[in-house]
Amino acid sequence: MKELLLVLLVTEVSARSNNTRCRLGCDCRRDLRFTICSRANLTHPPSGVPPSTELLDLSDNFISIIPKKVFSKNRKLRILLLQNNNIRVVEDGGFSQMEFLQKLDLSWNRISTLTEGFSIGLTFLQELQLSHNQLANLDSRCFFHLDGLQKLNLTNNSIHAVQMRSFSSMSSLRQLHLQDNQLTSLRSGTFSMLRSLEVLNLAGNQISDMDLSVFSPLTSMTVLNLAHNQLSTVTFKTFLSIHAYSTHIQLQGNPWNCDCDLHRVFRKLRSIQRLFLDDYSNLTCMEPPVLRNDLLMDVDSELCIAETVTVLIITITVVITVLAAMLMGERKKKKRRKGLHWTQQGDFSDDSDF
Ligand SMILES: *[C@@H]1O[C@H](CO)[C@@H](O)[C@H](O)[C@H]1NC(C)=O
Ligand SMILES: *[C@@H]1O[C@H](CO)[C@@H](O)[C@H](O)[C@H]1NC(C)=O
Ligand SMILES: *[C@@H]1O[C@H](CO)[C@@H](O)[C@H](O)[C@H]1NC(C)=O
Ligand SMILES: *[C@@H]1O[C@H](CO)[C@@H](O)[C@H](O)[C@H]1NC(C)=O
Ligand SMILES: *[C@@H]1O[C@H](CO)[C@@H](O)[C@H](O)[C@H]1NC(C)=O
């Protein structure tokens, strides 16, 4: 009886596998809930994907356009894999009506712009992979409908500008990966509203300048990666304003200007209990030239010596000047007294010179 059931089941599955709908280089599995069309030389998203499909794998093909509503017959999709294609254009509404979609992978494509129409219908998306594309400027509304997004991966694009409100609709976002882009500065307001953000990865950009309050809205942040940027100095308040319970900060691979100010900033930062400078022992100096490639940790105690010496010299100079002035004054007084004495002796009545 059991065996019969099994045979029936196998027949049923293979009959469905031979379904004409699954012949376009695709492979339908497990009662048609998985449709695998990877490496099938597709130049367009295939039509006729079974409507019951929950996972559609279109990776490693030659798809160049995502036309409007192309997946509208696949409203049960939970996972859509489109990595490693030639996608340049996502038409407005390309992913509309996909209210069950949780994960969308568009990495390793050629997307250079995204508009508001891109995110329409992706209200329940949790993970969006966009690494290795050609995005340069993030429009303020391109992620507007991604209310439920938890993970956004923008690694290795060419992003040099982020419009002020680009991330502000994503109040559920927990991970934002922006490493290996072209950011040069971080303006306050860029990360506002990201109350749930736990991981902010900004490694491998060109950041040299950060506004004092840029991280202050990030009250859940546990990891802030700023390694391999162009920071030569930081302001204490920039990190002091992170009010998360505990935050690990990575800062290696920056061209630190090892002076007394930097020494003071790091001394204060290391004394704050909720901040962890994980790679402090790996920070190296770029300036001044005599300290180039030295570990900050090794030269740390000497950085304020020059300053102390300068202060000492200034103090001594001031003291000497004051003493000299007093001495001169004293001498003049004496002279005056002597002169007075002499004029009195010489019977001169005019003392107007004094
Ligand atoms: C499905 O197709 C394969 C070859 O493509 C064939 O060998 C098999 O008999 C077919 N199964 C059914 C149930 O038609
Ligand atoms: C895809 O195209 C290549 C080269 O044209 C060919 O060798 C390969 O068999 C094709 N793959 C499929 C699944 O059609
Ligand atoms: C982000 O994308 C990069 C490159 O594709 C990948 O190596 C990395 O694992 C991704 N990170 C996450 C957290 O998804
Ligand atoms: C990331 O992009 C840069 C160009 O911006 C390139 O040089 C680098 O090799 C890329 N990294 C990876 C892992 O592909
Ligand atoms: C410090 O640098 C070394 C060598 O690059 C690396 O192996 C180590 O993991 C780094 N330490 C930290 C805390 O990042």
TrEMBL record:
Keyword Transmembrane: yes
Signal sequence region: 1-15
Alphabetical keyword list: Glycoprotein, Leucine-rich repeat, Membrane, Repeat, Signal, Transmembrane, Transmembrane helix
Gene Ontology terms: cellular component: plasma membrane
TM region positions: 309-328
Alphabetized PANTHER family for the sequence: ANTIGEN BSP, PUTATIVE-RELATED, CHAOPTIN-RELATED
Name of the protein: LRRCT domain-containing protein
Biological source species: Nothobranchius furzeri (Turquoise killifish)
Taxonomic classification: Eukaryota, Metazoa, Chordata, Craniata, Vertebrata
